[in-house]
Design brief:
171 residues, mainly alpha, three-stranded antiparallel β-sheet, two-stranded antiparallel ribbon, 5 strands
């Protein structure tokens, strides 16, 4: 397939327009597929997310890290992890990093869907904006593409996005 996409290039974190397009495309995909996931697609479960948090805690303990804020972070994640499994559920790429997103002008082509699963869309957005200095721009593009009136969803969306970002750091 990639030979047919030879004039596409990876999204650049130095290009705000491309990053915004990538956020909007995945937001549109999430909107269109919300609640329409075939049963054979794996679903990220509470135990899946807690596995990564517990692995992170084990690393902290083995390294004898004493920063209590890191353990407080784990406690917060443990308390609210249900928000990542209760929805709204959609098809997520699972590794929506810039290396897996090709672009040519206004055309965005996510590739390498082998980690696709059923989860909350904020998982993909968290991957996209990781270490991106203008994350707020992508967050806005995503929300506009995902919901007709994103302001109605902002509080729950922001909390799920925070938890999704924590999950990626645990991983």
């Amino acid at each position: 397939i990639l030979e047919f996409l030879s004039d596409y290039k990876s999204v650049s974190k130095n290009n705000q327009v491309e990053m915004g397009q990538a956020a909007a495309v995945i937001g549109t995909i999430h909107r269109q597929l919300e609640g329409k996931i075939p049963p054979f697609v794996k679903q990220y479960s509470k135990s899946f997310f807690l596995h990564w948090m517990n692995t992170f805690k084990e690393i902290l303990e083995e390294a004898e890290v004493e920063e209590s804020w890191l353990f407080n972070l784990c406690n917060y994640f443990n308390e609210y992890v249900d928000l990542l499994v209760e929805g709204p559920l959609t098809l997520v790429h699972g590794e929506y990093y810039i290396k897996n997103i090709l672009v040519k002008k206004e055309h965005v082509c996510p590739i390498d869907w082998e980690s696709a699963a059923c989860s909350v869309g904020e998982i993909d957005l968290a991957a996209l904006i990781d270490n991106y200095p203008d994350a707020e721009y992508c967050i806005e593009r995503y929300a506009e593409a995902r919901w007709p009136n994103p302001h109605l969803f902002l509080k729950a969306f922001n909390q799920r996005l925070l938890l999704a970002r924590m999950y990626f750091y645990f991983r």
